[in-house]
Amino acid sequence: MTTRRPMIAGNWKMHKTCPEAEDTARALVGQLTGKEEAEVMIAPPATALVPVSRIIGDTPVQLGAQNLFWENQGAYTGEVSAPMLVSAGCRYVIIGHSERRQYFGETDEGVNKKIKAAVAAGLVPVICIGESETERDGGKTFSVLDKQMEKGLEGLSEDQFSQAVMAYEPVWAIGTGRSATPEQAQEVHAHVRQFLEKRFGAQTAGAARILYGGSVKPANTAELMALPDIDGALVGGASLKPDTFAEIIHYKR
Ligand SMILES: O=C(CO)COP(=O)(O)O
């Protein structure tokens, strides 16, 4: 049986100026012992990546970006490429977040190109999938997720996928205070892992980390993390305060 190191990731979304981000990162580092069971990642806004990377330097906190564009360089005003993120100190990049799909027209095809660009540059993609409330109510959860995975992961070899992290974020649970129940989350995570097994084989699927995201807070982390196919959390609102995020990281205490 594969052991998967849990991961607790903070998606700061469009929050924090550079000084605020530096203060938050410094305070978070101050709360960690270095012996955390979970790998810790924070994804500040693009402007704060470099200053935050200087603060988290050799600490156990890893740096992630919230998006990228799939070309390495060129006339793409406003965009940031995978090699640029690497040069800013990133190891991870969140791809296909539902807010990007909803507000910025991100498609499964774009997600696919972004994943390939991330992997080619040596970044680890955190690939987000999730159904809306209407889709869940209509009994379409699995078909929606399957389509997002089929198109998003199209053409990726087992080797290319091997480091990737999946994140299941039901849209109806994001920022609503209404997290998925442990049963709902486990059911979907097991389904995602089965999909990965069919696509990439048992070993890769067994090693893949699948994070849950959507109203994760200190009070519900332990019960979610106890489930067999939940390997971590992608935390939005509750990652903005270092004390609260540290409580989530230390969910076992
Ligand atoms: O979208 C999320 C993380 O990427 C979840 O956000 P909340 O934790 O604020 O619900």
From TrEMBL:
<dbReference type="Pfam" id="PF00121">
    <property type="entry name" value="TIM"/>
</dbReference>
<dbReference type="GO" id="GO:0006096">
    <property type="term" value="P:glycolytic process"/>
</dbReference>
<dbReference type="GO" id="GO:0004807">
    <property type="term" value="F:triose-phosphate isomerase activity"/>
</dbReference>
<comment type="pathway">
    <text>Carbohydrate degradation; glycolysis; D-glyceraldehyde 3-phosphate from glycerone phosphate: step 1/1.</text>
</comment>
<keyword id="KW-0413">Isomerase</keyword>
<dbReference type="GO" id="GO:0005829">
    <property type="term" value="C:cytosol"/>
</dbReference>
<feature type="binding site">
    <location>
        <position position="175"/>
    </location>
    <ligand>
        <name>substrate</name>
    </ligand>
</feature>
<dbReference type="InterPro" id="IPR020861">
    <property type="entry name" value="Triosephosphate_isomerase_AS"/>
</dbReference>
<protein>
    <recommendedName>
        <fullName>Triosephosphate isomerase</fullName>
        <ecNumber>5.3.1.1</ecNumber>
    </recommendedName>
</protein>
<keyword id="KW-0312">Gluconeogenesis</keyword>
<dbReference type="InterPro" id="IPR035990">
    <property type="entry name" value="TIM_sf"/>
</dbReference>
<dbReference type="GO" id="GO:0019563">
    <property type="term" value="P:glycerol catabolic process"/>
</dbReference>
<feature type="binding site">
    <location>
        <begin position="11"/>
        <end position="13"/>
    </location>
    <ligand>
        <name>substrate</name>
    </ligand>
</feature>
<keyword id="KW-0963">Cytoplasm</keyword>
<dbReference type="InterPro" id="IPR022896">
    <property type="entry name" value="TrioseP_Isoase_bac/euk"/>
</dbReference>
<comment type="pathway">
    <text>Carbohydrate biosynthesis; gluconeogenesis.</text>
</comment>
<dbReference type="GO" id="GO:0046166">
    <property type="term" value="P:glyceraldehyde-3-phosphate biosynthetic process"/>
</dbReference>
<feature type="active site" description="Proton acceptor">
    <location>
        <position position="169"/>
    </location>
</feature>
<keyword id="KW-0324">Glycolysis</keyword>
<comment type="similarity">
    <text>Belongs to the triosephosphate isomerase family.</text>
</comment>
<comment type="function">
    <text>Involved in the gluconeogenesis. Catalyzes stereospecifically the conversion of dihydroxyacetone phosphate (DHAP) to D-glyceraldehyde-3-phosphate (G3P).</text>
</comment>
<comment type="subunit">
    <text>Homodimer.</text>
</comment>
<dbReference type="InterPro" id="IPR013785">
    <property type="entry name" value="Aldolase_TIM"/>
</dbReference>
<feature type="active site" description="Electrophile">
    <location>
        <position position="97"/>
    </location>
</feature>
<dbReference type="GO" id="GO:0006094">
    <property type="term" value="P:gluconeogenesis"/>
</dbReference>
<dbReference type="InterPro" id="IPR000652">
    <property type="entry name" value="Triosephosphate_isomerase"/>
</dbReference>
<feature type="binding site">
    <location>
        <position position="215"/>
    </location>
    <ligand>
        <name>substrate</name>
    </ligand>
</feature>
<feature type="binding site">
    <location>
        <begin position="236"/>
        <end position="237"/>
    </location>
    <ligand>
        <name>substrate</name>
    </ligand>
</feature>
